[in-house]
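Supplementary Methods. Inverse-folding protocol.

Structures were first reduced to a discrete structure-token string of length 384. This string, shown here, constituted the complete conditioning input.
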């Protein structure tokens, strides 16, 4: 089970401590907002015939992309490549109800007037990586990053130890947020023969299910070229336990020490929560060229703060099985329609686990997440 309060406190501390990281990052980052949907922006055929409102008459208005959070302000990338700092305010309109108002990766409409840059509207999110907020009675959807294409789940073969539970939680979150998923298993340079066997086991397991898996070492560069090929032309977020080497991999991909990295805590042999904020960075094509992506799209990469546990937002017990794609071909033959694969007689998924056709690690994750989803569902119904 996650330790939400503890995690939440950490999250808050990380946001507060965000300054240090950003001072180090002088790179021009994530300049262009995402291409707007038709009619959702301030330019294009629709906007030309739009009646100007009074606010527009005194200020200008354009679309920008949130690239990082600074205290209670947001650093935005404008279309012309400039970076500006903006604030949200009471009148900020959200296209994403019951969720973080402004998140990194959001596309926003801004004005510039007497009060500086103001975020007037946060546009609906195409995709998101979100988690359950903690510390309040009614948890809300805390968006870590919006509008990215790919979630790269980072784990490590050496300390901190690889645990498949958190990988499966992220896979569920990715499905929920409409993200593609890849897995990077880091620190292969430190792996003992047993740890290497374990890494290969998990590589084959997740590859067998259909996810791209990369065995990498941020330190000696093994596997980094392949990972760079995977992320070329996409916007990707790197997430996982603290200390697994997310920032180190980001630096290896960028070819520069941009993201701050930190040693593990000696006593617990786990990460020290070095990265304090999610930041979007543009991967340069020079001097460290990436292979040409289709359509020559720019590549963005986001480092994110490490977590101790990952709490999924609003797990749905009925939908859970769709995040376990290897169950699908067996569940068609379960004796009971809508079988939950937990207790029903004639369950072909459980039979497949017994026959070693489905991994026991994945099935245990499913059981845990299913139980949690059920508990949450009961709570939600009670609070209605
Ligand atoms: N030997 C070895 N050490 C690594 C590798 N990747 C990262 N490390 C070390 O592991 C420690 C943690 O690395 P970070 O990159 O700071 O980890 P992180 O996942 O960003 O951690 P948080 O920001 O706390 O979430 C540092 O001491 C790194 O030098 C690797 O591939 N091999
Ligand atoms: Mg880090
Ligand atoms: Zn079943």
């Amino acid at each position: 089970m996650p330790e939400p309060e503890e995690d939440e406190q950490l999250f808050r501390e990380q946001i507060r401590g965000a300054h240090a990281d950003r001072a180090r990052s002088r790179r021009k980052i994530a300049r262009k907002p995402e291409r707007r949907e038709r009619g959702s922006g301030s330019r294009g055929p629709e906007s030309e015939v739009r009646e100007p409102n009074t606010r527009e008459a005194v200020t200008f208005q354009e679309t920008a992309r949130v690239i990082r959070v600074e205290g209670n302000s947001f650093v935005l990338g404008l279309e012309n490549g400039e970076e500006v700092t903006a604030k949200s305010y009471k009148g900020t309109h959200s296209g994403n109800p019951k969720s973080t108002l402004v998140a990194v990766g959001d596309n926003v409409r801004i004005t510039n007037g007497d009060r500086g840059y103001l975020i007037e509207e946060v546009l609906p999110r195409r995709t998101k990586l979100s988690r359950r907020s903690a510390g309040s009675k009614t948890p809300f959807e805390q968006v870590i990053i919006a509008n990215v294409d790919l979630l790269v789940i980072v784990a490590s073969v050496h300390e901190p130890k690889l645990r498949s539970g958190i990988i499966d939680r992220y896979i569920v979150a990715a499905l929920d947020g409409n993200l593609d998923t890849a897995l990077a298993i880091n620190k292969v340079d430190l792996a003992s023969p047993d740890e290497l066997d374990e890494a290969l086991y998990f590589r084959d397991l997740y590859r067998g299910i259909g996810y791209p898996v990369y065995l990498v070492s941020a330190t000696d560069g093994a596997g980094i070229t392949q990972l760079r090929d995977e992320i070329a032309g996409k916007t990707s977020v790197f997430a996982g336990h603290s200390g697994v080497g997310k920032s180190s991999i980001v630096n290896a991909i960028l070819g520069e020490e941009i993201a701050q990295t930190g040693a593990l805590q000696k006593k617990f042999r786990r990460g020290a929560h070095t990265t304090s904020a999610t930041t979007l960075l543009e991967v340069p094509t020079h001097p460290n060229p990436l292979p040409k992506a289709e359509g020559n799209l720019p590549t963005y990469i986001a480092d994110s703060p490490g977590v101790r546990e990952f709490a999924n937002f609003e797990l749905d017990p009925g939908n859970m099985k769709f995040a376990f794609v290897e169950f699908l071909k067996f569940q068609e033959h379960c004796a009971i329609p809508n079988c939950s694969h937990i207790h029903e007689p004639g369950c072909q998924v459980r039979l497949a686990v017994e026959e070693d056709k489905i991994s026991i690690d994945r099935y245990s994750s499913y059981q845990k997440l299913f139980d949690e989803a059920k508990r949450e569902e009961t709570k939600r119904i009670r609070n209605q």
